[in-house]
Amino acid sequence: MENKVNREIPDQILNDYKYEGFKTTDFGNPEIQRVAPKVTAQVGPSKVVESVKKVVSETLKDGMTISFHHHFREGDFVFNMVMREIIDAGYKDLTLAPSSLTNVMNDIVVEAIQKGVVTNITSSGMRGSLGDAVSHGALKNPVIFRSHGGRARAIEEGKVKIDVAFLGVPNADEMGNANGMNGDAAFGSLGYALIDAQYANKVVLLTDSLMPYPNTPASIKQTQVDYVVKVDKVGDPDKIGSGATRFTKDPKELQIAQMVNDVIVHSPYFKQGFSFQTGSGGAALAVTRFLRKAMIENQIKASFALGGITKPTVDLLNEGLVSRIMDVQDFDKGAASSMKNDANQQEIDASWYADPANKGAMVDKLDVAILSALEIDTKFNVNVMSGSDGVIRGAIGGHQDAATAKLTIISAPLVRGRIATIVPDVTTVITPGDSIDVVVTELGIAINPKRKDLIDSLSKVPGLPIFTIEELQQKAEKLVGKAEPLQFTDRVVALAEYRDGSLIDVIKQVKE
Predict the structure, then answer these.
(1) Are 394 and 386 in contact (CB under 8 A)?
(2) What gap in Å lies between CA 503 and CA 148, rounded to an integer?
(3) Residues contacting residue 482 through CB under 8 Å, at least 6 positions apart
(4) Peptide bond into 217 cis (omega under 30)
(5) Strand order in 382-383's β-sheet?
(6) Angle 168-173-175 (CA atoms, 0-180°, nearest 5)?
(7) How many CA atoms lie within 13 A of 218 on its CB side?
(8) Three-state DSSP class for 54?
(9) Of 75, 205, 218, 346, whose CB neighbour count within 10 A is largest?
(10) Residue 157 has what DSSP assignment?
């Protein structure tokens, strides 16, 4: 069938995986039945187990679904530690269901796939050697990619049933009370892990800092935890923000950031009490700096900032320019260390952040969201998942979730190297064009024609170059030439969900 973003979805995929094709960005008001985990009552002085090997043997069976979180990012030691024990023990046909997969996890997952240990994966994203292997058909079954909010929804309604959650934490007591704010490897918010702790049948905490009981504040509580394992080291905090928090000096990125700021400031949403989500990366951080200046000049304060949090956003909080930070993940040590000292930096779980099927998600209160992209097409569809060569090299993350903002801005260079960013059709549709309001490049902006209000207000901004999206695409094509069509087999290697659980696109195996 062809869905509403004109992507052909094989009928067999829809039938076998019980999907509907994507229809609309209007999610409506569905009713879902939340599931509950199995609970085994525990009476005793301690839940501490002496080794990872022992806890794996006590919890795991062939065919189970296991989960991890990615808050340590490239500094994660827990994932490889646990997976090594699982592989060496010879388990088979496991489903891997982490909140996301970072580069540090790639090699061991490829090994697990090759040995038949992992035959299914559901995640927010993947890249590097793992993305390349999956794109060329290494995994037995298609990967299912979900946004952070979509993952929370799928867990809450039972589409993802986690048997064992292995959660690395920088501190815990003998009963399992833990947080992400204290310890040598503190990373701040435990937002993505909180869903796993609440819904997994078995919860295993791994920590390098065993604290006196009771350990507070407790983001994960002893009522949720089955086992605690003391290990030598859970992660390297210096690598949590690798590459994400640099202050750019790149003229192209600064030009994009300045134009993003111009769009925000001259939109109807830049007013007292507005809310926003930026993100990481050079251009996004530069937007925060420009926005700070505009807020001071116009005496405007924001009600809250949302999402993955960086030190520049924390600085806005400390200066009184933002009243609250709603924190699902921290991208650097500055943001991570701030939360334990400021009650106005509130830890939130992935459901509170972005689950479209709960009783109210934070993303639905967003005025402005600034997001990035690998590709944008002339229908404003956005790809953040696969490269121009068809290889999986990204993550949905919170992209679809935050695109529910009143003003959703995509910031991206017109070209990267010799590859166009604005294209006739994106390789993989992840966020539908109906969600996107403005695309900003270093040469100018394009406004979605449906937003006549923005066309009217932004057309009055002196010096702001406005083009149609087709004009930007043609400018990109003139710079780099027309791309050759990609060659794929008929085999589907990944399914991309929309946040409501419908199928928005499929990724097919790249031909050699």
Answers:
(1) yes
(2) 16
(3) none
(4) yes
(5) 382-383, 375-377, 422-423
(6) 95
(7) 20
(8) helix
(9) 205
(10) T
- Per-residue burial over 404-440, b if 16 or more Cβ lie within 10 Å, else e, is bbebbbbbbbbbeeeebbbbeebbbbbbbbbbbbbbb
Query: Within 13 A of 277's CA, how many CA atoms are on the CB side?
Result: 32
DSSP string, 172-229: B-TT--B-SSSSTT--S--HHHHHHHHH-SEEEEEES-BPPSSPSS-SB-GGG-SEEE
Task: Answer whether 69's CB lies under 8 Å from 167's CB.
Answer: yes
Query: Coil, helix or strand for 391?
Result: coil
- In a 13 Å sphere around the CA of 8, the CA atoms on its Cβ side amount to 4
- Do 287 and 260 touch, CB atoms closer than 8 A? yes
> What confidence score (pLDDT) does residue 333 get?
84
As averages over each run of 10 residues, the pLDDT of the chain (512 residues) reads 96 96 92 94 91 98 98 96 98 98 97 98 97 98 98 98 98 98 95 98 98 98 98 90 62 94 98 91 82 97 94 94 97 88 96 96 97 96 95 95 96 94 97 98 97 97 97 97 90 97 98 82
Cβ neighbors of 239 (< 8 A, separation 6 or more) are 72, 73, 74, 75, 104
Q: At 342, which helix (H) or strand (E)? A: none
Is-contact 157 35, C-beta < 8 A? yes
Residue among 327, 317, 340 at smallest CA distance from 189? 327
Q: Give the integer Cα–Cα distance in Å for 170 and 51.
A: 17
Number of H helices, E strands in the chain: 15, 26
pTM of the predicted structure, to 2 decimals: 0.96
Distance CA 119, CA 143 (A): 9
CA dihedral of 468, 470, 472, 474, whole degrees rounded to 10: -150
Return d(Cα 3, Cα 172) in angstroms, integer. Answer: 47
Per-residue three-class SS string for 300-311: CCEEEEEEEECH
Strands (E) in 348-468, as ranges, are 368-371, 375-377, 382-383, 394-395, 407-411, 415-416, 419-420, 422-423, 438-440, 445-447, 466-467
SS (H, E, C) 216-259: CCCCECHHHCCEEEECCCCECHHHCCCCCCCCCCCHHHHHHHHH
Cβ atoms < 10 Å from Cβ of 311: 20
State the Cα angle at 382 between 378 and 386, rounded to 5°. Answer: 120
Task: Give the distance, in angstroms, between the CA of residue 157 and the centroid of all CA atoms in the same chain.
Answer: 20
Sheet containing 227-230: order of strands: 48-49, 227-230, 202-207, 164-169, 65-67, 94-96, 118-123, 143-145, 488-497, 503-510
Place of tokens 């499929």: 506
